[in-house]
Write a structure and sequence with these properties.
seven-stranded parallel sheet, six-stranded parallel sheet, binds adenosine-5'-diphosphate, binds magnesium ion
Length: 777
């Protein structure tokens, strides 16, 4: 007898070989198969007549094959099939469609699905007033199709799955059957239909009172209805995965995710942490170092952080604030609270540039300060991977002996040897750069005295995290948001321009430099024109822009071009201007006379440090760089950010880059320079950059464009894989799931009986461990 846990290979018509195929797609059991929901549906009970269709949208049409022909065209063979309903016809076209030559027989019924377009020949004939009767009004390019079963079909047992009902369509699972047929929608339908026929019952996963309260169907009913919807189910509900059946299945998945996250938070609260005190010494210390009046938002988040630090449980807090919102000073204040309590603080930054910058500004901030509790100056040190081994060992020794209080560094802080005397607080700057899995490795390190308390952790990020992701990825953290900018900032003027107007850009940069301002020029790659260099998380556009057309060039530009040509390797891809090459070109060319600097990820730490320091001191007017300057770099006198090949950058990245300017009182500019051909998606990104400076709005758009997996760039993993839920689509259900999960774990519904409650926790343990692997036993 079939059960949910039955391996798929025991299901009729699957067997060993297909079972292996399915396993590669993560489908091992009957349950996995059942949760592979259709991605769309066709209403073959009430098919649309062709006469009622309008071009432009997706259409699902059932008709009879009238004829087909394989045409030879200049771009290869093209297969045409004419589908008819009475007098009305639609032309279906497949490029390179030779393989379809013998597929269709006149008279067969076929269901097609695709984007309906009006036929040009039809329009022309119509306007000339000589409309031949057989001409199709519409065409569909590359439609999906299914030949419908006829009465004499050997498979007519299953005919009722394909006609006269709402038919599920599945994403192909790849693989083939034993006789070489693909694992098509039709195959899935038959398998799932049989399974649902045979499956006696399935264990319910949500308590009955909860289902009743939320108005959700039971589990088996939901699975049945999602695969084989009842006639009359509204098509828009099915297509948007918002039928009661869908909602229940999606809710279930999100509910267990949120319940797991809330459990994780609770567990964390049970662990031992340090209860810092905030007496007058601490208050004096904080006052002493504040270089300006904090904003209301800075005060509020500091209060939230200090509130956590005073509690005897470890803090796990994420501080979100747009670039330039002033997170650093808040972090430094939190650091002082721990230090005045006699603890060490570690501040981790994702890059050496940023760690060094934090180190220098911390030194400056604390230079004249005297610790009220020890009556001595604060001791700050820098620990990065590129330190000389001897110096590194020496620094590690001082950290271990408790001779330094604030330790600023990169990943080197996470190395085994970096033991602390008594680490009380870990601050992770630009947390998203580290990756989720990595984020708390440091906190698990026991102190030198062997105490088992966890340090507090404050993670900071300037990537505004859309709420859907915050609820999933960071659902185990408490969140503070700085939603206000320090006073005196003028909005950054953002402009778009194309590369043929580059001379205007250089003129503008010169003008700003003449005013004593500084500029960044950012390129996607270091040198050459290959885009396989790791400096950039390229925007993921489905279509690459076609290669640039031969540009029209003036004599002057042709000269510039010839310099460029020397430095660029011939390549098939559109040519990219690169930082190192442009640095050479510009300092002898368009920007001659200004002080240029070059910064990129392949330079040594020393080189980078020297260049950054010179830029900070104003000795460099124009910093030619890659995205290494993306995070954290703070030079208030810089007022111009030029991003070349802006069409190649992701939104979050452009936003971060733009955040490097507008940090002082002077008016700042962000210039997005593009090639002449820009994809639709890139166009949307550029327009969004111009339309808003609000990081959260941009983040939402970025999430919509790239999807949750890509949102943080390729380095980021740790997002749960969903079976039925989709974070972009199911936001409302995610909120509901969170509310219900919190309610359940805090104070279960009085209507719930003990066995219900236990069953939910039991299921959480099984499912959660297996699916997300986030909870330790
Ligand atoms: P981010 O949140 O991006 O890390 P920073 O902490 O680097 O931002 O702050 C950006 C700039 O704003 C810095 O130059 C900092 O000194 C300044 N700043 C921060 N808070 C205030 C404030 N309350 N008033 C004036 N300037 C501030
Ligand atoms: Mg910062």
């Amino acid at each position: 007898m079939l059960e949910l846990s039955t391996p798929v290979k025991y299901v009729k018509r699957i067997g060993e070989r297909i079972g292996e195929n399915l396993a590669t797609r993560g489908i091992h059991t009957v349950e996995d198969l059942l949760y592979h929901l259709p991605f769309r549906y066709e209403d073959r009970l009430n098919p649309q007549p062709i006469s009622a269709l309008t071009p432009g949208g997706m259409a699902s049409i059932i008709g009879e094959v009238r004829g087909s022909v394989l045409l030879r065209t200049r771009s290869g063979p093209m297969f045409e099939m004419t589908l008819g309903q009475g007098l009305a016809t639609v032309k279906c076209i497949w490029f390179h469609g030779s393989y379809l030559k013998d597929k269709f027989k006149p008279g067969q019924m076929v269901a097609v699905y695709g984007k309906l377009e009006s036929s040009r020949t039809f329009k022309a004939a119509e306007s000339s007033g000589s409309l031949p009767p057989a001409l199709s009004k519409f065409k569909i390019i590359q439609p999906q199709f299914e030949i419908l079963p006829s009465a004499g079909d050997p498979d007519s047992e299953f005919a009722m799955l394909e006609i006269g009902r709402i038919v599920p369509v599945y994403e192909s699972l790849g693989g083939t059957t034993a006789w070489g047929a693909k694992l098509t929608s039709r195959w899935m339908r038959r398998i799932l239909w049989s399974i649902l026929q045979e499956l006696p019952a399935v264990p319910e996963t949500l308590p009955a009172p909860m289902l009743a309260r939320l108005g959700f169907p039971g589990r088996l009913a939901a699975l049945r209805a999602a695969h084989f919807p009842e006639a009359g189910t509204p098509m828009y509900e099915l297509m948007s995965a918002s039928s009661p059946a869908h909602r229940r299945l999606i809710f279930e998945e999100l509910f267990y995710l949120e319940l797991g996250l809330s459990l994780k938070r609770r567990k964390m609260r049970e662990r031992a942490g340090t209860a810092f005190t905030t007496g007058s010494a601490v208050r004096d210390a904080l006052k002493q170092v504040l270089p300006f009046h904090p904003t209301a938002a800075q005060k509020r988040v500091l209060a939230e952080i200090v509130g956590d630090m005073r509690r005897p449980q470890p803090m796990r807090r994420l501080l979100q604030g747009d670039v330039g919102s002033g997170k650093t000073i808040v972090a430094m204040q939190a650091a002082l609270v721990a230090i005045e309590n006699g603890y060490q603080v570690a501040l981790m930054a994702p890059t050496e540039i940023l760690a060094t910058q934090h180190y220098l500004s911390a030194r400056k901030l604390l230079a004249d300060a005297v610790s009220p509790s020890t009556a001595k100056p604060y001791r700050v040190t820098l620990l990065t991977g590129s330190l000389e081994p001897a110096i590194k060992r020496e620094t590690q020794g001082r950290i271990m002996r408790g001779e330094v209080q604030l330790i600023i560094g990169t990943h080197a802080l996470q190395e085994e040897k970096a033991d602390f005397a008594n680490l009380g607080l870990v601050i992770v700057d630009e947390q998203h750069r580290f990756g989720v899995q990595q984020r708390f490795r440091l906190m698990r390190k026991p102190g030198a005295d062997g105490r088992v308390t966890d340090p507090d952790v404050l993670a900071m990020t300037a990537t505004p995290i859309p709420r859907t992701l915050a609820l999933t990825l960071y659902g185990d953290l408490d969140v503070s948001v700085i939603d206000e900018m320090p006073p005196g900032r003028t909005p950054i003027v953002t402009r778009r321009t194309t590369e043929d107007r580059v001379d205007d850009v250089w003129a503008f940069v010169r003008k700003q430099a003449g005013l004593g301002r500084q500029a960044y020029l950012v390129y996607p790659v270091i040198e050459g024109s290959r885009d396989d260099q790791p400096e950039l998380d390229f925007a993921h556009d489905p279509e690459e822009p076609p290669a640039d057309p031969p540009p029209k060039r003036t004599a002057k530009k042709a000269a510039a071009k010839s310099i460029r040509a020397k430095t660029q390797r011939p390549t098939e891809k559109p040519k990219l201007r690169a930082a190192a090459d442009m640095y050479e070109e510009l300092r002898h060319g368009a920007l001659a006379g200004l002080h240029l600097g070059l910064l990129h990820g392949r330079q040594s730490a020393d080189e980078k440090e020297v260049t950054m320091a010179r830029f900070k001191r104003g000795e460099i007017d124009v910093l030619v760089s890659t995205t290494v300057i993306e995070v954290g770099v703070d030079v208030p006198n810089a007022t111009v950010m030029v991003i070349d090949h802006a069409e190649r950058f992701g939104l979050a990245q452009m936003h971060q880059l733009r955040g490097r300017v507008g940090r002082g009182a002077a008016k700042s500019y962000c210039i997005l320079m593009t090639g002449n051909r820009v994809t639709e998606q890139a166009e949307a990104r550029l327009n969004a950059m111009i339309a808003t400076q609000n990081g959260f709005e941009l983040a939402e758009l970025d999430l919509q464009q790239r999807g949750p997996g890509e949102f943080f760039g390729t380095r980021q993993t740790g997002l749960p894989e969903f079976r039925v839920a989709n974070l972009l689509r199911d936001r409302a259900l995610l909120e509901l799931a969170k509310t219900e999960a919190e309610r359940f774990s805090a104070a279960p519904d009085p209507a719930l009986v003990r066995t219900d409650i236990d069953a939910v926790w039991e299921r959480l343990k099984q499912q959660w461990q297996r699916r997300y692997g986030l909870v330790e036993a």
